[in-house]
Amino acid sequence: MTSAADGAAGPTGGPPRNGPAVAVRGLVKRYGALVAVDGVDFEVRPGETFGFLGPNGAGKSTTINILCTLTRPTSGVATVAGHDVVRDRDEVRRNIGVVFQDPTLDGYLSAEQNLRFHAELYGVPRAVTADRLRQVLELVNLWDRRADLVGRFSGGMKRRLEIARGLLHSPRVLFLDEPTVGLDPQTRSAIWRYITQLKQTEDITIFLTTHYMEEAEYCDRIAIIDSGRIVVLDTPQALKASVGADRVQIATADDRAAMAALADRFGIAAAVHDGAVTLSVPSGREFIPRLFAELGVPIRSVSVSRPSLDDVFMSYTGSTIRDADEVSGSEWIRRMARR
Amino acid sequence: MAAGTVVGVRVPDRGLRRDLRAVRVVLHRELIRYGRDRTRMISGLSQPILWLLVLGTGLSSLVSRSGPGVNLRTFMFPGVLVMSVMFTALFSAASIVWDREFGFLREMMVAPVGRTAILLGKCLGGAVVATLQGAFILILAGLAGVPYSPPLMATLLVEMFLTALMLTAFGLAIAARIKNMQAFMGVMQMAAMPMMFLSGALFPLANLPGWLTVLTRVNPLTYAVDPMRHAVFQRIAVAPPLRATLSPGVTWGGWRVPVPLELGAVMALTLGFLALAILQFRRAD
Fold it and tell me: To probe the interface with B, which of A98, A104, A139, A203 has the most B CB atoms within 10 Å?
């Protein structure tokens, strides 16, 4: 068994690499009366970073568990790297790396021992183990800490080590289930730096779940999932464009006159939000000069904001993701899903 | 990154060699964890030493008056070896419940290796650790009047290992589907004490009332204690009648079960428990 010196070497056999990295059709998972995943279809292209965005209990973790062969679907078909997740579990397992939501490291072992355990378990050829180990540890900046016991690591370090471990056997698809949950903002952005970096060095598809809107921006495409169904699936840019309008807020000397003028001269219905006249227009950049020229009411300040993914989520699900997170019972659903 | 090229890794096909590597690394991890856990090592030693030195010595004052002969500690020594092996082995089996609680089990479950390989590694790891723990007690043989003869030591080590395998497999069969540590410990307490009391570790299994005879004969541990006591009594000078009293062997309706058959029973039970554990574990998968 020889090692390939370049990242293009795929695992043995199997379907060609240009097929979808993940393909899911009509996936359903029921736990008794509860439907965790309710007929989901999507495809993940090779090499892309694909995000599952949704509140807790939306079915994200259940979907990942099915794709990782740890949970059997009630119905539907899913393939990962071309292999069926029910029939070819072993083939799927060889081709994936997983970072679970909850840590799965052995705190009594050192960082290096945790990785060596993984390498042996996956049968990584001994000739390349040392090099590959160093490579993944350097990628997440833990090479200097390799001899330390993992039990003494911070949450962020543990997550980084798990990412390194998930990459160790050069999987074709890396699953990251809420890779930054429970971490402070600084650590979260560091984790994203590592993920972006690994995309440059590894030939890999990333499938991740998150309920942080701002993190969905790192994805090539995102699927918004709510109550077990995919509500919409597209690139973050297209999704934002689909919501359409930019939001313009102006502070004027006379808000009532300004609103009347907007209705008269521009045919725009404006309202007062947060103490400012707020209106929606297709393109804020082009609208502002006209506004100044034609409004006829002195303007003290103006702000334009592009639609955020929060707006996208709001427009497709009717609630903000934070509200949805607080829906009662979601924690219970999550626990069910983890079984 | 310092290195320019990415080291690509090919995960080889499943096969015996891959599974053996998995067995070995799971075993290795158990050893590393045991080595790191001094408290477990020491606490595991304290109980058998208490039995041997305090109880053994205390009770022998009662016995020695009834006639000259063997120190009671000598009689108890094999029993104490088995006890120490038992507690360590059952505790080792608990590691699978720990792994489940602390998430590490998922790391193993999502890997492309057979569930059998994972359980075999756990079983061997637990057995090696338990045998090591027993070996520490073996060092105290002199205090119990047991000679340090190399063949005897070797025999006892092998028999301890077989015992440890059986008990770890037994523990795994129970642990395979238990999801939290408290529940496991409860079940273990319930199983361990009767097993010990009914095994002949503490009293000879002859001239017992019928019901007790039956209970001792269906206890797997009985067939682990007797070969070890037999080995010890073969190596010490003792009058035949006393030997017959203290090491009467295990009888099935008057027929004395030979040591090889006893050891065979231990191995058969090991396979049975292991099969049960694998079955349970697969079903939980």
Answer: A104
